Structure formats: structure tokens, C-alpha cells
């Protein structure tokens, strides 16, 4: 096992310290073999499979909880289609929390060389590392055969040396959801600058409400705010340079960005005790009217459009991009398609499993499913779709706000965790929680992250 994967094993234990109350998932079920060796073929090539004996594959997914019920229903429909098309196939669904899957379970399985046949995965840097270790199936011939290779908005996060090792399930942007009814009652308008956003936050706080809903038990949640702030203060291009050493975490503008997040914490713009709150808690802060604004990914719209989850707040929530430092400056927004599904390279050795994987891809990545994801779950398409076509897919006011947000983007960037190594992500996660907890100052926190970056960069040489 090469050095990069050995490093992952050590990261597992550090990352675990940042997670509280991690649940257990089911064990992988052994698969009946018995395939005829003469039926084996390369991925993407047609191979006739005569064996109809029962066999099983596992899909590790992260569609856990009420907020992901629509996405889970889509996956279940694709599973049924795939099982019906492949004789003898049974697909086992293994549900695991996203953070637990990414930072613990999948890393451990990859280090052991035994991932599930199909699994939820982030493209960059995760899939790239696993692919370089020979653990992920090369999908290039499969998507060529199915005629979908050029139909994605981007495959860059899943591409290594020109080969594709995973497929994004959807796209997303990050911005602020807000209580439109409250804004109207108080005579507030969508801010055009960061100063205006802070002025609104002060008025909300003075009214006895929480300006920004946030839950920081999982560090990636507050880091959405931090990442967008530093992309304004230091520029969206800064994150691309950390891995190469071209830019430094300790840059003075990075310090300013972290200091701004720290300032918002100190001013009481967030609920006290946010470090102990789960992701669902911050959505509830908006739904109950306790908080007025919330930084989150566009995917969160499904919660606010569902009467079972949002109740009377359905139709009363809007969306806007984080505004720039100065009015008229380009709007900079996190926009990517970095989360999707990967496939074990071991599948290539079994023609029946390979057939199942091809059928799964054929059923999952269609215009119909992309539109369904947009309509039912509010997930922006990962496959190419005209903005006007997207607008016609949903007349929901919140979705129209999100489409408007997409149209306003001047510069987009991928989330930081698509551009830095896992151990750097761990250091940054610890750092932002220390900032929120008042345990460290921005400059020192960034020194610690840069030290982790230096170590990671040296290990990659």
C-alpha cells in the first residue's frame, strides 16, 4: 500500500475526533461467485452473461434522514429498474451519514482495498486518490458506450489522467436562505454588499432574532460561510494554489476573512452553543422563526418546499447569493458538481457485476432523472441543461430565486475540500471550530492549517 493511503489511515482517527455520535451501518454481505471466467470482459465492452444464478451488489449511499427522502426515493426507483434488467441481481442499500461515510467508513474500506461495488464519493480529492491507487473502476469506456460522456456540465473532479472514475449526481451553489415574509414586514431588501448584509444582521439581532442560523457540530457547515468569505477577501483563485504551494493559508487576506467570521460569532449573529447543534437544527431555526437567514447549499431548498418539514413556512423562504465587498463587483459563488457515485475496480473482474453497474449508470444518469431531481429535490443538474429549461422545470418561487442566483454568478469556484488534501481539511475543520469556540485567533489558526498543508504537499512529492 503506497504512502498516500497509509496517510489516510492516520487521518481516519483524527477526523473521527471531529465527529460526535457516529452511527453504525450494516456490514457488507458476501456475494455469490460462480461466474464463468470466459464471460469476463473489460469495462464498457459488451460481454454476454448467461449465468442467471442469484448474486448481490451493495450500494453505499448517504440519503439519510427526512431532508433526503426525495433523493432516496429516486435511488430506490433506479435500483428497481436495474434489478429488473439484470437476471438474478439483488441490490443491497447501505445507508450511512455523509460525513461518517466520507471521513471514516469509506476511507477505512479503501485502505483495506475492499470498498462496496457502488458508493457515494466526492470527486476531488477523494476519488482522484482512490483512482491512483487502482481502487476505482475506469468509467471512460462505459460512458462512451452509453453516449453520455459529453453530457455532463463537468467531470473534472472525477477525472484523472484523462480517465473518468466517478459521476456527479447533481450540481449546487451556496448562498443565503432567508425569511421573505420577515424581510417584507421589516422593510428589508436583499443586500448588495457585505456591509449591507451586516446592517441587516444588526437589525435582526436588535429585534431579538438570530441573524444567521448555523449548526457547527460538523465543521463543514460553518466552513461554507468561511469559504465564501475568503473567496471574496483573498479571491476565489487562492484555494487552487494551496496544494501547489503557490498560495498560503497565512495570506493577510485569508486572515481578514477568518477574522470576519470570528467577528460575526462575537457579535452574536449565531445561536449560542452552535458547536453542539446538528445540521437539521439550523434548518429548524429558520422554520420556527428563531433565525432569519441561513448559509447553506442550494440542495436545502427541498426542506423549505416540503410541508411535512417546513409547515407554514412553505412559500415564505427566499434565496440570495452572498454579496460582494463592494457594490457592482462580480458576484463570487461556490458552484460545483463534486458529489456523486464511484465504483469498485473489482467489478471489472466479474461480468455480471459489471453488467449491473452499467445498467445502474444507464438508469441513473438520464435527462428524466436530472429533471426529477430538480423538481422533487431541488438539486441542480449535473448534466447539461439550458437555464431556461431549468426554469420551466419548477415554478416554485424559491427555485426561481435559486435560478436567479445561478444567472448572477460572475465567478464560480469549487468548494475548498475539492482542492485540498484530506488532512488539510481535517486541520481546517478543527481550526474553524476553535475559532467559533473562542479558543484560537485567526492568524494562529491559519498557521496550523498551513503546517498541515506543508506536510501534505511534502508527502505528495
Query: What is CATH's topology name of the largest domain?
Result: D-Maltodextrin-Binding Protein, domain 2
CATH architecture of the largest domain: 3-Layer(aba) Sandwich
**End-to-end Cα distance:** 17 Å
Structural class estimated from helices and strands: alpha/beta
Text of the CATH class of the largest domain: Alpha Beta
Helix content: 40-55%
- Find the count of extended strands (DSSP E, 2+ residues): 13
What is the beta-strand fraction?
5-15%
Shape: globular
Radius of gyration: 22 Å
Number of domains as seen in the coordinates = 2
Average pLDDT works out at 89
Helix count, DSSP H or I runs of 4 or more residues:
18
Q: Low-confidence runs (pLDDT<50, min 5 residues)?
A: 1-42, 44-48
Major pleated sheet: 6 strands, mixed
**For the record, what is the CATH homologous superfamily label of the largest domain?**
Periplasmic binding protein-like II
Amino acid at each position: 500500500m503506497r504512502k498516500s493511503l497509509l496517510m489516510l489511515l492516520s487521518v481516519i482517527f483524527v477526523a473521527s475526533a471531529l465527529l460526535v455520535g457516529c452511527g453504525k451501518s450494516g456490514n457488507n454481505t458476501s456475494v455469490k461467485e460462480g461466474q464463468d471466467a470466459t464471460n469476463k470482459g473489460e469495462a464498457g465492452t459488451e460481454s454476454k452473461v448467461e449465468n442467471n444464478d442469484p448474486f448481490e451488489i451493495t450500494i453505499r449511499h448517504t440519503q439519510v434522514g427526512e431532508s433526503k427522502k426525495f433523493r432516496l426515493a429516486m435511488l430506490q426507483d433506479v435500483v428497481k429498474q436495474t434489478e429488473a434488467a439484470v437476471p438474478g441481481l439483488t441490490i443491497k442499500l447501505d445507508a450511512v451519514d455523509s460525513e461518517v461515510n466520507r471521513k471514516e467508513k469509506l476511507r477505512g474500506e479503501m485502505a483495506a482495498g475492499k470498498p462496496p461495488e457502488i458508493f457515494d464519493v466526492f470527486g476531488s480529492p477523494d476519488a482522484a486518490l482512490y483512482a491512483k491507487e487502482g481502487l476505482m473502476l475506469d468509467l471512460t469506456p462505459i460512458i462512451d458506450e452509453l453516449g453520455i460522456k459529453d453530457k455532463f456540465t463537468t467531470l473534472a473532479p472525477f477525472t484523472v489522467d484523462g480517465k473518468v472514475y466517478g459521476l456527479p449526481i447533481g450540481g449546487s451553489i451556496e448562498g443565503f436562505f432567508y425569511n421573505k415574509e420577515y424581510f417584507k414586514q421589516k422593510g428589508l431588501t436583499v443586500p448588495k454588499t457585505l456591509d449591507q448584509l451586516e446592517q441587516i444582521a444588526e437589525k435582526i439581532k436588535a429585534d431579538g432574532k438570530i441573524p444567521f442560523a448555523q449548526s457547527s457540530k460538523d465543521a463543514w457547515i460553518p466552513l461554507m460561510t468561511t469559504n465564501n468569505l475568503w473567496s471574496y477577501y483573498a479571491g476565489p483563485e487562492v484555494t487552487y494554489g494551496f496544494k501547489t504551494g503557490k498560495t498560503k493559508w497565512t495570506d493577510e487576506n485569508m486572515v481578514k476573512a477568518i477574522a470576519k467570521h470570528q467577528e460575526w460569532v462575537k457579535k452574536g449573529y449565531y445561536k449560542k452553543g452552535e458547536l453542539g447543534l446538528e445540521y437539521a437544527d439550523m434548518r429548524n431555526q429558520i422554520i420556527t422563526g428563531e433565525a432569519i437567514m441561513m448559509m447553506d447549499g442550494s440542495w436545502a431548498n427541498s426542506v423549505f418546499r416540503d410541508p411535512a418539514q417546513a409547515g407554514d413556512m412553505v412559500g415564505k423562504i427566499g434565496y440570495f447569493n452572498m454579496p460582494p465587498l463592494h457594490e457592482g463587483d462580480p458576484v463570487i459563488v461556490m458552484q460545483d458538481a463534486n458529489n456523486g457515485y464511484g465504483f469498485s475496480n473489482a467489478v471489472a473482474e466479474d461480468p455480471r457485476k459489471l453488467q449491473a453497474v452499467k445498467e445502474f449508470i444507464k438508469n441513473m444518469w438520464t435527462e428524466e432523472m436530472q429533471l426529477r431531481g430538480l423538481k422533487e429535490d431541488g438539486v441542480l443538474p449535473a448534466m447539461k441543461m439550458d437555464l431556461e429549461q431549468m426554469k420551466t422545470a419548477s415554478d416554485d418561487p424559491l427555485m426561481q430565486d435559486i435560478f436567479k442566483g445561478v444567472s448572477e454568478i460572475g465567478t464560480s469556484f469549487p468548494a475548498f475540500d475539492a482542492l485540498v488534501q484530506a488532512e488539510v481539511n481535517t486541520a481546517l475543520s478543527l481550526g474553524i471550530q476553535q475559532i467559533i469556540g473562542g479558543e484560537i485567533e485567526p492568524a494562529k489558526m491559519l498557521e496550523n492549517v498551513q503546517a498541515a498543508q506543508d506536510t501534505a504537499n511534502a508527502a505528495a512529492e
